[in-house]
Every structure is written in C-alpha cells, then in structure tokens.
Predict the structure of Permease.
Amino acid sequence: MSTLTIERLLDTLQFFAFLAFELTALFLLISFLIGVIMDVMPAKRIQTILGSQGGRGYLSAGLLGALTPFCSCSTIPMLSGLLKARAGFGPTITFLFTSPLLNPIIIGLFWVTFGLKVTAIYFAIALVTSVIAGFVLEKMGFERHVRREVVEGGAASGCGSTTSSCGTQTSSAAPASCGTSTESSCGTGTPSSASSCGTDTGSSCGGSKPAGRWAKIWAETWKQFRKIFPLLMLGVAIGSLTYGFVPEDLIVQYAGDDNPLAIAIAAVIGVPLYIRAEAMIPLAAALELKGMGMGALMALIIGSAGASITEVILLKTLFRRPMIIAFLTVIFTMAFSAGMLFSVL
C-alpha cells in the first residue's frame, strides 16, 4: 500500500470519527432540545408561527432557518419536530432548505471571502428559492408523502389516548392494561395501573416533577437515535470515503471554465461530497485560484451544503420517495440556477 493511499485512508478515518461524533452529539442535543420545546410550547403556538396562511409563515420559516447554525443532517431533528407539531407543511419545507444554507457563520464567511455583492446574491437566491419551493410543494399536495408514523409520533402510544394534549380527548375504550379509569385530564384522574403503560400521564400537563419530564424526553430522544443510528453511520461512511479519496484536482478538471457542463457537474457532485458550507467556502476560495469558475463554485457550495447522501438517508425516515426526489430536484435546481446567474455576472 503506497504512502499516498495510507494518508488518504487516515484522512478518511479521521473525518469519519469526527463526523460521526459531531453528528451524534448534534442529533442527541437537538432532538432533546426539540423535545423540551415540544413539551413546553403547545403545538398550536408552533402552528401559528409557521402557519401557511399567506407569506408570513414562509418568511418566518426562512428566517428561522437562517438563524439556526445547522448542517444538512442536523436539520432533521427540528424538521421532525415541526412535522409532529403539525406546523404548516410549506413553511416547514422552506425551513428544510434554508437551514443548512443560511446562518450568520456562513454569511460572515461569504462576506469575507467573496465580498458583499456575492453574499447578498447568494442569500437572496437561497431564501427566495426555498420559499417558492415550499409554497409549490404544498400546493401540489406533497404533504401526503410524509410518513404516517412521523406525524403520529407525538401522540400518546398507550392507554388508548388519541391525542397528546392535556385531557382534550380520550378513547372511550382504553385497554384493560391501562387501568379502569379513562380520565386523563390534568390532575383530575389517573389510570389505576398507569405504570403498566410505560408513561406518566401528568408529564405533558406539567403535573410531574421536572426531573421526570427531562428523563421522559431523554428516553424518547435516545429511542429515536437508536432507530436512526445505523442509517446515520452508513451515510457518514459514504461521505467519508468520498471526502478522503476524491481529489480536488479531479473536481477542477471537470468543473473548470473550459467545460460547458461545469455548473451542472458541480451541482451534481456537490451532494455526495457532504461538506458543510462553513468548510466549503474556504475550500472554494482555493478552488477558484486553481481555475474553477464562480458559477461552478456557487453550484458546488449549494449542492454540497444543501443536501448530502447522509441527509437523504435520514429524510427517508420522514418522507416517501416522491418527496425525496422533489427535495433533490429543488437543491439541484437552486445550485444550477445560482451557478448560471453567477457565471454571467
């Protein structure tokens, strides 16, 4: 085995370890925080903030995405929380697109690296395209492609309850294992054998001790993480191999100014690269010096930051195939359109 191959293998393993640790920590932390928010903030409040009435919900979602320093993968826990809260589908999808592409760190790096004009155009393209995509996908009825278990995940899984809200609705025929009492409103009644249900009926109503609430939220967070862990590691492995064994010179060769298909190629290869925008922007500056055009650079940045193989794998746990295809189509269209615009400026 040559020295170069060993170095690339070590880089791959190092990147895998770093990425696996980072995504694991982010996923657990963000999932727990979303659990806390969902426990404290009523679903109706989130629906109001990100409701689909007019353009207010879309703008709120776009700005929320711009303020959250998430990469394409760490966006998934909050996306899942928004879907469970039954927030407006269009604004939720807008958040999915803007979150990994716009945040203060990325905008600052853009400004320092490429100047104010390029930064402003990039911000406008990402925000406007995301809002339009969210609006169009909602109008086309893509909400039907959300997996049923995702939106039903927030509902109580035991005691025959049909809703997770405090005492708003209960099944008239609770299972016998849940006790004889069907009353579940806050502080007014508890099933006689609630322990067999595995849930604390008072925790969502504020009746349980804070420690118990945190433990319940953490248990749900860990349960979700165990389910997603194999898919997460598979995506990290693919992204690490691409990172370690695809040389920069090869990218430049196929995405240089002399290649008429450079922008399209850059947009396509950006997805499997899985490089966060914060890391991609300094790399883009070096690639520009090697001869890559600004159009191809923008396509590469948006493609690599906006989507990744890991994210697609994670999104499969939330959406059916048509929505996954639509997501990738929007990211590619955004990357290609931005590249074409920058190539003529």
Q: What stands out?
A: The chain has a mean pLDDT of 73. The radius of gyration is 23 Å. The chain is about 65% helix and 0% strand. The CA atoms of residues 298 and 329 lie 17 Å apart.
